[in-house]
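pinned: reference chain
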Amino acid sequence: MPQSTPYVHRRPFALAVLFGALLLSLLVVPPAAADDGPGTPAGWTARPAGGGSAGEDARPYVYLEGTPGTVLQDRVSVTNPARTPLTVRLRGDGPAGPWFRFAADTVTVPARTRADVPFALAVPRDAVPGGVAGEILTVGGGEERRVPVRVRVGGPTLAALTVEDVEVSGRTIRYALVNRGNAPLRPWLSVRAEGAFGTLLDRQARPLPLELAPGRRVELTEPWPDAPALDSVTVRLRVTAEGGARDEAAASAAYVPPAPVTGAGLLALAFLAVLGARAYRRGRWRTGTSAAAATAPAPGPDKQPAEEERHLETAGAES
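pinned: its structure tokens
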């Protein structure tokens, strides 16, 4: 008589397989999600709102765009995968950090929950057009997360640059650059110096190793190692930058030899002064003589010189 199919023997085997699969699934659960003990929640995230809880389709950073004086709004998501609540503090950081305002500076996120925290970014009325970077700093459980923020400030760009307080001292030329516009500038500088006998210095325009932020003033020096020992010079500085910014300024200085040869230098200057004075007087004398000759009255056609008249009188007496 044929035996029945041994279902009794297969069921324990199937249950064993199912139990083993369940055990294996428990072993591969991420530690952060399985953390249900006391202490600091681990594995929490902070990112721009709009993506999934696991980060799918998440924005890499918050992008905002507006003109000076406007208020821009967005949200940041804080995800707490642990089984205990998480308390985080939020604040702005970076160049745009002071512009941030949050609906709440401190937020408690329940276990296994994501909280979207609204925030506003107020663009100052005097903000410079261009790009500004910032971050949203979130701190919780002894850890911190940073959310990048990129702000594009619209509006017209004004490039204005001035060179001020030019001073010539020995072998050094001192001056100051001031950015009077609302855009960062990389200035170029050219230097020219003229003396009593011609050009002493002629340096073509070259870029300076600095970026001048709007409203910034920087004091700089220009070396002049081969400055003259005896001369009267005028130094002219010209600065330019992108956007049509340009300006120039000049300063004068007298170079006198140092103490060991001061006497000789003064004698040379005195000698030149004497020569100049003599030449001036000689020119005045020649000019006066020529003027006197030009203004003397000429004898008329019917008037004879006195000597000729005397001869005529003598001849009349004899006759």
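why pinned: Residues 262-295 form the longest helix (34 residues). The helical segments are 7-27, 31-34, 262-295, 306-318.
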